[in-house]
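Table S2 (text version). Query chain:
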Amino acid sequence: MSILSLVMEMRAYFEGWYFKQQNDTEALAFIPSFHIEKNRRYCAFIQVVTPDAAYSVKYPATALAAQSHRPILRIGNNIFSPRGVELDIEQPQLSVHGRLSYDRHRRPSYDIMGPFRWVPAMECRHSVVSLAHRVNGQITINGRSYLFQDGHGYIEGDRGCSFPQAYAWTQCSWGDNSLMLSEATIPFLGMHFRGIIAAVLLNGREYRLATYRGARLLRAKDGEIVIRQGAYTLTAKLLKKQELSLPAPVSGAMIRAIKESLCCQAAYCLEKNGVTLLDIVSPLASFEYEHH
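Corresponding structure-token output:
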């Protein structure tokens, strides 16, 4: 079945991926997605996020082609896959051209959703394609070139009908290490619960903290997230934000505005029984904090 046939058979739905790459001083993110709204209108988007600007380009669904093992997709002349991206966008306000190659992937040890991947009718399902990989190549955006030589990459995805109403998310890469953490209010069977997923890739080892492993949210306030799972405590704190407005899905349609800091200052700490395993402050962290 083609991707267009599949999308047309669905009701409100979205599917999108987040491709982040960073060098020693800055980062870029590309967010390809496709959508079907309640009225059965469907389309595709590419968002381009730099440290100080965000752009969104809408495409007709006829410009979309995807393979069954996503994220491997083409939107117009643009290609996105775990092996790299090729970008060719020429719009009145946005010119993006270039190619990046990805290798040396470090994938999660198992699905980030754990057993929740099998639960039907969830509002939003998260996936992590690559916790860390090498990035090489060059992208030119509105005349400015971004060069990546043995840079750091990260790929994740979301699919469902809507982003959670209240959530926080952060991601950070340094050396061969990586961290992602997300907590959200999850509607389920007429009720709500706080869901947590986190993966810390540290010195070649993956630490997994999640609701399905007994993780509890201790704090989500003022840009700080603290979770505890058995002997482990993980803290993420947004220290200095640089927010950009990005569109996000509600019932499949890109009508919500969220705030993301692609390159911000954030602190992370992982402890086991009071012993510090990780304690860093990064100027290249990414952070979304949608709690009001």
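Notes on Table S2: Helices lie at 3-9. Residues 1-10 have pLDDT under 50 and may be disordered.
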